[in-house]
Each structure stands twice: as structure tokens, then as C-alpha cells.
Amino acid sequence: MTLAELENAKAESLQEIAAAADAAAVEALRVKYVGRNGSIPALIKAMKDVPKEERPAFGKAVQAWRAEVEAALAAKGAGSAGEKAVDADLTLPGRWRSLGVKHPLSRVIEETAAIFGKLGFTVADGPELENRFNNFTALNTPAHHPSMDRSDTFWFGDDCLLRTQTSPVQIRTMMQNKPPIRVICPGRTYRRDTTDATHSANFHQIEGLYVDTKPVSLADLKSVLAYFAKEMMGDGVTVRFRPHFFPFTEPSVEVDFSCHVCKGKGCAVCKQSGWIEVAGAGMVDPRVFRHVGYDPAEVSGYAFGFGVERIAMIKYGIPDIRWLYENDVRFLSQLA
């Protein structure tokens, strides 16, 4: 195409655009002239075949043609980037996108803190890197206990480890304060578990502690956990205690919640039993009090603990703990 022919083609294209009667006609002309396979892009691709001495002038003319066509299309309501003309009310307010949702683990921790906060519990925190005394010895764990093995715990030397539970926060709290103490201790914990649908080497716990100079009993513990079960899982959920053993409590119990899905009748969630094992609890062992400098004859108290992931999986019907760590927005948005 010569420069004269190019000028004629430009004039013809501008006339066609000016004569376009509707948005569909304008869009068709946009595709014809500046679309991906349009006339003007085709000329730009063919520049290599233009004689070298004519190439600068020819290229300048093609670009000028493109600019005029795009301006004419824009005046007719078509975008040069392929946008179709649309009718819009520009006086309407904008649509704000959601800022996202809270992770289910964060939601369980916040809900738990709020529930126990109504009962006078405050939130206590501590380091994830702990020493042997706070994580094991002060909690009345025997020196030969298998949890101290390197196959079970992440050790860094002989007296430094990643905490295996949030109970060391209770120890630190008692060593730094005098009774009465009423705290919950949410936090990240670590154990050498093989990751599967129900286990993870990194998980979260919430433990609670109440110590006072006035008598504290298992009845007090049961009333607190019954209130928590109702607030977290809904009305009608009850608790039951089963005898168990933990080194740091005596007597010790396993705590079950009645199934909030089937109301105790039996279903897949509770494995047809009507109950869901949720927590471990008991009265604080006198030897634990001695380790932190308390006189067991003058104080009494209870402690409890449960896994945040377990509560989240039960509450939201999540079958695989790994889903909580994949950061899949499609999954997380379903729990909003």
C-alpha cells in the first residue's frame, strides 16, 4: 500500500465510523480497523516489507491513521482497548469489595477469649521457645516420660525446646503472680507428629487455669466448661467427665461435649456415640503448686486444655486438619 492509498483508506474508515448508527456498528468497525486482526495492525506487521527508505514516512502515517481512528471510535463510545459501549449511571455509589474473612482458628480463639472473658478470665501469653522446667518439670512430668524424647519434641540443646503445650504459660503466670489467678492461654504449640487428616506438627491450644485461696472444686470446673460448651456450640450442648490421667492434675478427667449436630442421638460427626471428646482437665496437682512456690494447703485450683483445631473442625464440619493451613480462599470464604 502506497502513502496515497493509505490516506484514502484512512478517509474511508473515518467516514464509516462517522456514519455508524449504533453501538454494534461501532464495535464492528473497531474490530475491522484496530482489532487484533484488523487492517491497521496488519499494516504494522507488514512494515518489514516496506522499502527501507520509505519505512519512516509509512510508519508515521500508519500510526497517525490509528490515532485518528481510535479518537473517532472513542467519540462514538467505543474504547480503543476493545471495551464495548455500555449504558451506566455514573451517579450510583461504588461497590466495595469484601476485605476477606477471619481464619476459623482466629475466630475460635477470639470467641473463646470472649466467652471466658465474661467469667472473669484474662488472656495470658508466653514464648514459644521454652525451657525444660516450664514445659515438663514444673508440670510434674517424670524424667523418663516419652514426651521428652527427641522423637516427640523439637529440642534445641538440653534445655531449650519448642513448647509442646501452652501449659508453660500457666507456670510462668503462677511464678509471677499471687492467687487469685484466672487465665486462659491460647497459642501455637509443636510436636513431632506425622501430618495427616487429624494430626499436625504445628497446632494451637487453649488452656485455662483458675487458682484461688478459697476452695475450688470439680463442680466449679464443670460449671465453667458447661457454660463454654453452650456458648461455643449452641444451646442444648452438655458436658460429661470421664476419669483419666494427666501428670499435672489430680484427679484428672477427659471432657466430652454432647454432639451439637445430632443432639446426642448418634451421627457421623460423633461416630454414633452422641458425644465428642474435646478437652482434658482436672484439679491442679499439689506438686505443681510446690514447683511454682505455692503452698498446696493454702490454695486450690483447676486447669483445662483443648485443641483449637479440634474445636474448629467440630464447629465448622471440617474433615481434614490440613485444610486449615492451605490458605485456599474458596474454602475459607465458605466459613464466613
Task: Give a brief description.
Helices cover about 35% and strands about 20% of the residues.
Structural description of this entry:
The protein has eleven helices and nine strands. By secondary structure, it is an alpha+beta fold. A hairpin with a 2-residue loop joins strand 6 (239-246) and strand 7 (249-258). Helix 1 (3-19) runs parallel beside helix 4 (55-75). Residues 79-85 have low confidence and may be disordered.
What would the principal axes of the Cα set say about the shape?
Answer: elongated
What is the number of strand segments? 9
Q: Kindly report how far apart the N and C termini lie.
A: 62 Å
**Which strand-content bin applies to the residues?**
15-25%
Q: Please tell me the overall pLDDT.
A: 87
| Global structural class | alpha+beta
Low-confidence stretches: 79-85
Cα gyration radius (Å): 35 Å
Question: What is the string of SSEs from the N terminus onward?
Answer: HHHHHEEHEHEEHEEEHEHH
Give the number of helices: 11
Largest beta sheet, briefly?
Answer: 7 strands, mixed
User: Strands of the biggest beta sheet: in what spatial order?
Assistant: 1-4-5-9-8-7-6
Work out the helicity level.
Answer: 25-40%
